[in-house]
């Protein structure tokens, strides 16, 4: 049978308030008494009643997270960073996955709100006034990551456009003359919030626009991008750079080129974006943009917890990125 704080207090010969101070490491109690209470609590296998505690302190000590999925290694890394930092600060995480579907995302948010989470970290596919009005009615802290919504909502990310522009500048200096850009999410342009993908595309185009290269790039916006590459004859005289909006697409491209015995980077250069941790196992090492994914997760938790406990978000400027100069360019 579950033991209560009152029963612990009776066994230890102290008040319930003293037990609470010991269990939550609060001042106003001697070290000897605290150690005695903690020893008895462990022996009796005491487990806190979070429902009762939440009624007293007005918080459930939980934070909801809405992500697309966990297929993309970046999202797994983000979630791991979020969970570790939340646990350090005394919070638990509710994880929900939207599968990049607008309606599913709304269901995820409703689920989290109904579970009385203290705040939500949101990677959204929704946008617009109606969506923002929907979020506002809950009156709980919400931080957006990756996809920006508007100035009304806290956002943690990087300068996506500038990062991609610098990546293109780097590629151009390597002597590439023909460019292919691969980003299947662009198929949802104007239909869903694909802020990060739009910004990366703009950065790619701006980088080429200022490079002096006059050849029009091929932009592939669908999931059959490997099929489209099959129709291209990669010239050995005029090197082609394939720029991908995420590392996952870049890895698929590299696999295809290896199968076709196309030399990387001698014939075709490949550029990714994110610098997912599995790249250390890939040869040649993919050239990419390092996305500070774990810093984003930790910053999101620190900011939202500060809002929950002290009423203000932690001001978070756009985080730093880095061009990782691998062997694929």
Description:
The protein is α/β, with parallel strands linked by helices and 329 residues long. It has 3 domains: 44 residues, no CATH class; 126 residues, Response regulator (Rossmann fold); 131 residues, Response regulator (Rossmann fold, 3-Layer(aba) Sandwich). 42% of the residues lie in helices and 14% in strands. The protein is built from 12 helices and 11 strands. The strands form 3 sheets. A 5-stranded parallel sheet has the order 2-1-3-4-5, with helices on both faces. α9 links the parallel β6 and β7. α8 packs parallel to α9. The longest helix has 18 residues. The chain is elongated. It starts with a helix and ends in a 5-residue tail after the last strand. The model has no long low-confidence stretch (mean pLDDT 93).
């Amino acid at each position: 049978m579950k033991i209560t704080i009152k029963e612990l207090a009776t066994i230890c010969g102290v008040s319930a308030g003293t037990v609470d101070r010991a269990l939550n490491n609060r001042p106003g109690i001697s070290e000897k008494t605290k150690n005695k209470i903690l020893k008895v609590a462990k022996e009796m296998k005491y487990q806190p009643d979070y429902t009762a505690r939440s009624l007293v302190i007005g918080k459930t000590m939980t934070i909801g997270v809405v992500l697309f999925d966990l297929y993309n290694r970046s999202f797994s890394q983000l979630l791991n960073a979020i969970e570790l930092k939340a646990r350090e600060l005394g919070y638990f995480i509710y994880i929900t996955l939207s599968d990049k579907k607008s309606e599913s995302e709304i269901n995820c948010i409703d689920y989290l709100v109904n579970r009385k989470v203290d705040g939500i970290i949101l990677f959204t596919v929704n946008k617009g006034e109606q969506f923002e009005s929907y979020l506002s009615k809950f009156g709980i802290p919400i931080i957006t990551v990756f996809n920006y919504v508007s100035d009304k909502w806290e956002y943690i990310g990087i300068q996506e456009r500038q990062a991609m522009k610098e990546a293109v500048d780097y590629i151009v200096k390597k002597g590439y003359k023909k460019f292919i850009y691969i980003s299947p999410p662009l198929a949802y342009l104007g239909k869903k919030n694909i802020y990060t993908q739009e910004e990366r595309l703009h950065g790619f185009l701006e980088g080429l626009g200022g490079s002096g290269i006059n050849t029009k790039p091929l932009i592939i916006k669908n999931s059959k991008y490997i099929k489209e590459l099959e129709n291209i004859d990669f010239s050995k005289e005029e090197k082609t750079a394939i720029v991908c909006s995420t590392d996952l697409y870049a890895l698929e491209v590299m696999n295809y080129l290896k199968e076709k015995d196309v030399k990387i980077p001698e014939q075709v250069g490949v550029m990714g974006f994110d610098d997912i941790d599995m790249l250390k196992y890939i040869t040649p090492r993919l050239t990419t943009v390092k996305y500070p994914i774990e810093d984003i997760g930790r910053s999101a938790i620190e900011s939202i917890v500060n809002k929950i406990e002290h009423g203000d978000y932690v001001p978070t400027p756009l985080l730093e990125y880095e061009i990782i100069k691998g062997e694929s360019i």
